[in-house]
Amino acid sequence: METPQRQPGLEHEMSPEPEYMPRFPGAGRLKDKVALITGGDSGIGRATAILYAREGASIAIVYRDETEDAEKTAALVEEEGGRCLLIKGDVADKDFCEKAVSQSVEKLGKLDVVVANAAEQHAVEEFENISEEQLKRTFQTNIFGYFFILQAAMPYLNSDAAIVCTTSVTAYRGQDLLLDYSSTKGAILALVRALASKLADKNIRVNGVAPGPIWTPLIPASFPADKVERFGKDSPLGRPGQPNEVAPCFLFLACQDSSYMTGQVLHPNGGEPISG
């Protein structure tokens, strides 16, 4: 199966454009907080960055090389009154992650929220055709990158800090064309649960969000046109979700509304029942 577009995808080339603007006025739930978001240039990351800014946060956005998308997101964050720092690089590189975190703290003053969100996926029909190169690359971005960015952040996170990780509905029920991606998302689920236990005595909360079919740049970047056309229509709600329908989960888990939650996962997936 050919990948129609570069990974992890370009939002400005999508038609229709995803819906990323928050739907409601802010309430100051992240007033004076600083959040770092990997993969914050587009998709769910963009919607989350804008919503966090509306709620009073300053944002550091880590992105691979989607500069046009990242600059638009930064402008939207600033329109909401938030400061925005753009940091270009590959989260699969441990040294880069360490530099990104230190640069965020240096420029924005502190670090209160980390959203580990950057991901890539590559659709392959046959399990045995997943190449060693692809397997390594998917794990390096989707799970190594989470470890690297969170390890780098730990010295700066104080009590009441929040970590939010993006896992996926595929962690719970798999996806025939995305076996390596699904595996990384299962690993992220285990990371959320284990790290939440590890950091509970520091009062650093660790939670996750497991989106279902959401209209983001990963979709046209991963699937041929016929699958993109049908994307999300088999969900109980009969359509794909939009990034601004997922971002409120990231807000809830980042702010004090969720002060008694850690090691948990929210499921904006259009109604698919989830267990486990």
Number of strands: 7
Instruction: Note the main sheet.
Output: 7 strands, parallel
Shape, principal axes of CA atoms: globular
Number of domains: 1
Helix and strand sequence: EHEHEHEHEHHEHHHE
Q: Order of strands across the widest beta sheet?
A: 3-2-1-4-5-6-7
Could you give the distance between the termini?
Answer: 31 Å
Helix/strand/pairing category: alpha/beta
State the fourth-level CATH superfamily: NAD(P)-binding Rossmann-like Domain
Count the helices. How many? 9
Average pLDDT reading: 92
Mind telling me the CATH class? Alpha Beta
User: What portion of residues is helical?
Assistant: 25-40%
Radius of gyration: 17 Å
Q: Mind telling me which CATH architecture this is?
A: 3-Layer(aba) Sandwich
CATH topology: Rossmann fold
Q: How much of the residues is beta strand, in percent?
A: 5-15%
Q: Which parts are unreliable, with pLDDT below 50 for 5 consecutive residues or more?
A: 1-5
